[in-house]
User: What shape does this take?
Amino acid sequence: MSPAANTLGSATSPYLRQHADNPVHWQQWTPEALAEAVRRDAPILLSVGYAACHWCHVMAHESFESEDVAAVANAQFVCIKVDREERPDLDAVYMNATVAMTGQGGWPMTCFLTPDGRPFFCGTYYPKQQFLQLLDAVSETWRTRREEVEEASDQVAGELRRMATGLPDGGPEIEPALCDHAVLAILRDEDVERGGFGRAPKFPPSALLEALLRAYERTGSPLPLDAVVRTGTAMARGGIYDQLAGGFARYSVDADWVVPHFEKMLYDNALLLRAYAHWGRRTGDPLAFRIAAETAGFLLNDLADGAMFISALDADAAGVEGSTYVWTPAQLTEVLGEGDGTWAASLFAVTESGTFEHGSSVLQLLADPDDAERFERVRLALLAARSTRVQPARDDKIVTAWNGLAITALAEASVALDVPPLLTAATRCARVLLDSHIVDGRLRRASLGGVVGDSAGILEDHAALATGLLTLHQLTGEAGWLASATDLLDIALRHFADPDRPGRWFDTADDAEQLMVRPADALDNVTPAGASLIAEALLIAAHLVDADRAARYGQAAEATLSAHSALLARAPRSAGHWLAVAEAAVRGPLQVAVASAGPDSELLSAARKLAPGGAIVVGGPVNSSALLEGRDRIAGNDAAYVCRGRTCDLPVTGARELADALGVSV
Assistant: This one.
């Protein structure tokens, strides 16, 4: 039976569409493609990547655009392409297999599967000749040593199922001492000289920064704050940050944050916007405020697609990595003239030898300019010149979870920066996301160009969006946001919670496509785990709803944190968001309810700026929300009621009294 033609042209993933013209007869992961493998009794060649992945492009150009590679692949395999961002469930299953077989993972991920989906050989990037040899070897093994293949795939499947059991039951109690232990363990891994944690390559530790800020607010110890300042400053002044247009690249290939892997992801920038806004709001640091404002601008200027936000900008432009962003001294002089060009080269650390390839340099800003007006003129001139270069491709896919992270970050930044349009952008995104990504009452994972894909929403989609909606409810008082958030939480509790292990969660719904293993990854990675995100949403919602639902959400939040406390004890660097949620939980969490005559209350504004990260803040007339039940203004003055868990202080009517009650400085 002849293989089906390439079908990726109809995909809702830009990554898959990039391969629509390949001579390889790529299929999407569908029942039809899997059935074809069974009919042909042919192994599956599964290739997993994402649109902004540099090495995915390299392997595509070397191998997947090659007629001789295609001839072998089409004849011997059913070839399936998967966008890991659209199908993180598939990516999780087969990445675990790849790591189990090779000891490491990455993208592009290359897996060979039996027709029923069991992996028997996995790897990542292969150069063309090595890939051709691999195709021949796998095909020969499939034909002549089938029993060995079946036995190996059974062993891998068994190992994956064993790994899927996750953490052991039981762990230490969620209490301040556990948080203190986790913080100290994280700080021991800090690169004090260069900022960040661990060695190169260095990824932006956004969840760790948020957790350390909350630890500082709880304890008053300068140690976690100092680490935030060192890392936040190093990243903001290094090449990983776009010194002209704002926004962070995916990671730094070196320990000094100089040379980035140039793709820019929505999730990184949303999470870092939240962390920098929190740092600025708590300390007043002008660098933190500037980076937060510029990162918010990057989201709105470069990643916006109507009301919602696209997934990424590519690392490459016309096949050349970083070419849009790097400069030589001569190029600076050509744009700016001799005087400004020399000044800019010194300011941005652009040298004749270069910090990147072919004598070019990535722009850094190691110190603030001594002439702000001159700097702005130079920045705009370079930005205009850069806009004439070939620009990186855009991954225009709209991912629900990452837009949920952006909603939360923009809403919180609107308070920190006192920029109401950021809240407007967050509310607009949330409305369109709810209108478009909920189909037949259930949340979908992604869309492209207004067309919603078939991929079902996973746990992180429900949780991240719910937290964003709860943030909007607190800032606007609109009941609709709370109702939509609790709808998502109820679906999550019904379809994603593990009925046999309270507090444990699956990443896919019980009525989603049944894979070889049902993913349940509790570790925070470049984005927080779905389980840690749902813990955050449940913890917040438990204090915003009626008593019956409050008890249900509160118990689920407590069980979720308790079931994962071992991560904070054993692997806190892989549990940054868990630590942030735990920091909020051990403080009660803190709740501030401001009884006010209207939305322009100065005391309510002060409460939002003073409250620690993870605190719940609402305002409005008496009985306008669960936290304001029976709580009214006092003697004609707005009044703030501060509670820790279910224990409440006497109300206060001034910002300074409120700061004292919260344990922060005005």
